[in-house]
Amino acid sequence: MTVFTTTLNQMAILFIFILIGFFLKKRRLLPEDGATVLSKLETNIIMPALILNTFISKCTFDVISQKTPIILWGIAIAFVSVIVAIPLSVPFAEKGALRKIYCYSIAIANSGFMGNAVMIGVFGNDVFFDYLIFTMPINIVIYTWGVSLLMPSKGGNPLLRLINPICMSMVIGAVIGLTKIAIPACAMTVLKDAAACMAPLAMILTGFTIGRYDIKKLLTDKKVYIVTALRLLILPAFFVFLFRFLGMSHDILILALCTVAMPLGLNTVVFPAAYGGDTSTGASMALISHTLSVLTIPFVFAVLL
Length: 305
Hints:
The chain is 77% helix and 0% strand.
């Protein structure tokens, strides 16, 4: 019950911020391009600040040498997620853009914005550093396979997509932490204060994005409820039983569960919108899964852990 109530309290806080973002959109208190502004601010400033602050303060040679199992299990989660998602997406849609949206959603949960917020709120900053290391492989999958799946093919090397603020902040933070380069106290304070904005801003962005659509229409897609149940309940149970059978420790199991039990992400809205695609399915996934996750995440953590 302690795990359930602690997680439920954190989810309630995050959901209130989602409602704030929804209200801001419906009342037109922010301009139409507010989602774009919030997304760029979160991706280019707030998330990198959070990662830099964490890696600079906690990344040392002694720590990294102890984290090899976490990295290896993270690679396993990323690999199995993609392998499982490809066949599971087939019944949801014919070949094409919609099939790719379902495939991405089954493979990749919102382990970034929502996962980071839940991990910090429930387990604290010490465990959050392990979580960032654990989710590095899934982030590589997102910025290579995931982006290629949701965006029209333009050729080129998909690995170049790893040159982005989030991935680069991990590298820079690790270098500073390992080399113990002196950072002015005022700069560290800026990073810490900016990092504190991550969860509220991410949830406001989620609510604002959902608020752009007709709620009644978003709630009528039956397939979205099925994929939401798959994402929030069935896949977390599958991964927990599989990796517990393979010998995953309890501490790493917490990281894995926080990676796979999060709601469906916003990339299925963001990327199709950028290229004139249909965003209604992605928005429906975001609305239904984020709303239900307020109850499913505490339940899954309490039962499966």
